[in-house]
Design brief:
The chain is α/β, with parallel strands linked by helices and about 400 residues long. The chain contains 12 helices and 17 strands. It binds pyridoxal-5'-phosphate.
Length: about 400
C-alpha cells in the first residue's frame, strides 16, 4: 500500500471506499500515480478539472492572487467576488449571484431563496418538488431534496417540505404543483443517478407549472454547467429552458472549491442582509481563479468542440460489444452495460489499464473527461473500454 493510502486508511473517517491508487501529479487529461504510472483521466475529479489538471493560465491566476490577497471575509469589499458574480449573471440569468464554497451550499441558498420567495407571496407551508433520481448534495437541506438518500434512517429527521415525482412523467409533475409550491428543483441531466437526461416534456411542464403557480424553477447546473454539455449552461442547450434560479459549483472553480446560486433580476433581491452568509465565500483567491475558469470555458471554439467530439465519442461507444446504450450530451456521458456486466468491476479493470472513469450505478460507467481533450485521447479511451469489455 502507498504511504498516502496507509495514512488515509488510518486517519480519515471511512466515508469513501477507494482503490489502492495514489495520485501525485496531473497535467491536462493525464494523471500520474506514486509508482510513476500514467493514466488518462476521464472523470476529471468528478467534472471539476474541466480545463484539465494544472492549466497554466489558472495556475498563473492562482499564484498571482495568492501573492496579493487570499481572504478578507464578507464583512468587506474585494473586487474579484463582484467580478465573478457579474460574469456569472451576464452569462446566464442576468440578475445577481450568491457565492459559496460547494454545490450543496449553492443548493441550500436556492432552497432558502425559494422558501422566502414563497413566504413573500403568502405561502405558509412552502413545498419544493424534486425528481426521483435527482442529486442535490449532502448537507441536511440538499440531502432532504435528494430522494435516493433521504430514506436512510441513520440521519433522520430530514427537512420537511419536499415532494418527489417521477423523472419522466409530465402529468405527475403538473399534478404535484399547487398553491403550496415554492419551487421545482431539478437537474436537466441527472449525473449521480448515472447520466439520465430529464425528458424535454418534463422540463417544459416544469416551467409552465411554475408560471401557473407563481413558483420558481431552480435548475441545478452543478454537474451539467460550465460547458460540460456543449453549451456554457445546459439550460441554454436543447431543450432550452429559462430558470429563475441556477446553481453552479464543481468545474466553476477550475479545481478550487467554489459554488454559486445565480438568480434572475426578479429573484436576485429576495435574500437581504442577515438572511444568509458564509465566511469563506467569494474570497479573492477562489473568485479570481473561478472568473478565469469561466472566461476560458466560454470560448465558442471550445464549446463547439465539446458538442462535436461528444457526439462522435458517444457514437463510437455505442458500437462497442457489451454496451447496451449511451446517454448524455456533450462530454457528460453515461455508458449502459449489457446484463451480466458489473460496472464497478469494469471501472476497476479500466483503472488497471490506465483509464479513470467511475460507476455511478451497477450497470453504468460515467465519462466526464476534461473539455480540452482531443480526438486522440477520445480514441484511446474508446479502445481501452473496448478491450475491457472484450
Ligand atoms: C456534485 C453535485 C452536487 C453537490 O456538490 P458538492 O460540491 O459535492 O456539494 C449537487 N448537485 C449536483 C447535480 C451535483 O452533481
Amino acid at each position: 500500500m502507498s504511504a498516502g493510502a496507509e495514512l488515509a486508511e488510518r486517519w480519515l473517517m471511512p466515508t469513501y471506499r477507494r482503490p489502492g491508487v495514489e495520485f501525485v501529479r496531473g497535467e491536462g487529461a493525464r494523471l500520474w500515480d506514486s509508482e510513476g504510472r500514467e493514466y488518462l483521466d476521464f472523470l476529471a475529479g468528478i467534472s471539476v478539472c474541466s480545463l484539465g489538471h494544472c492549466h497554466p493560465e489558472l495556475t498563473a491566476a492562482l499564484t498571482t492572487q495568492a501573492n496579493t490577497l487570499t481572504h478578507v471575509s464578507n464583512l468587506f469589499h474585494s473586487a474579484p467576488a463582484g467580478e465573478l458574480a457579474r460574469d456569472l449573471s451576464e452569462s446566464s440569468l442576468g440578475g445577481r449571484a450568491f457565492l459559496c464554497n460547494s454545490g450543496t451550499e449553492a443548493n441550500e441558498c436556492a432552497i432558502k431563496l425559494a422558501r422566502k420567495h414563497a413566504r413573500l407571496r403568502g405561502v405558509e407551508d412552502p413545498e419544493i418538488v424534486v425528481l426521483e433520481g435527482g442529486f442535490h448534495g449532502r448537507t441536511m437541506g440538499s440531502l432532504s431534496a435528494t430522494p435516493g438518500l433521504s430514506q436512510n434512517p441513520s440521519f433522520a429527521p430530514y427537512l420537511e417540505g419536499f415532494r418527489t415525482v417521477p423523472r419522466d412523467d409530465p402529468a405527475a409533475l403538473e399534478a404535484a404543483v399547487g398553491p403550496r409550491t415554492a419551487a421545482i428543483m431539478l437537474e436537466l441531466i441527472q449525473g449521480e443517478s448515472g447520466v439520465h437526461p430529464v425528458p424535454g416534456e418534463v422540463v417544459g411542464a416544469a416551467r409552465e407549472a411554475c408560471d401557473r403557480a407563481g413558483a420558481l424553477l431552480i435548475v441545478d447546473e452543478i454537474q451539467t454547467g460550465m460547458g460540460r454539455t456543449g453549451t456554457l449552461w445546459a439550460h441554454q442547450g436543447d431543450p432550452g429552458v429559462a430558470p429563475d434560479v441556477m446553481t453552479s459549483a464543481k468545474a466553476l472553480g477550475g479545481g478550487l472549491p467554489v459554488g454559486a446560486c445565480v438568480a434572475t433580476p426578479a429573484c436576485g433581491e429576495v435574500l437581504e442582509p442577515g438572511d444568509h452568509g458564509s465566511t469563506f465565500a467569494g474570497g479573492p483567491l477562489v473568485a479570481t481563479v473561478a472568473r478565469r475558469a469561466l472566461e476560458l470555458t466560454r470560448d465558442p471554439g471550445l464549446l463547439a468542440g465539446v458538442a462535436s467530439l461528444g457526439e462522435r465519442l458517444r457514437e463510437e461507444l455505442a458500437a462497442i460489444p457489451g454496451v447496451s446504450e449511451v446517454r448524455g450530451r456533450g462530454l457528460m456521458i453515461g455508458v449502459g452495460l449489457q446484463e451480466g456486466r458489473e460496472a464497478p468491476a469494469v471501472a476497476a479493470d479500466l483503472l488497471h489499464r490506465g483509464l479513470i472513469v467511475n460507476a455511478p450505478a451497477p450497470d453504468t460507467l460515467r465519462l466526464l473527461p476534461p473539455l480540452v481533450i482531443g480526438e486522440r485521447e477520445a480514441g484511446a479511451a474508446v479502445e481501452l473500454i473496448r478491450a475491457a469489455l472484450a
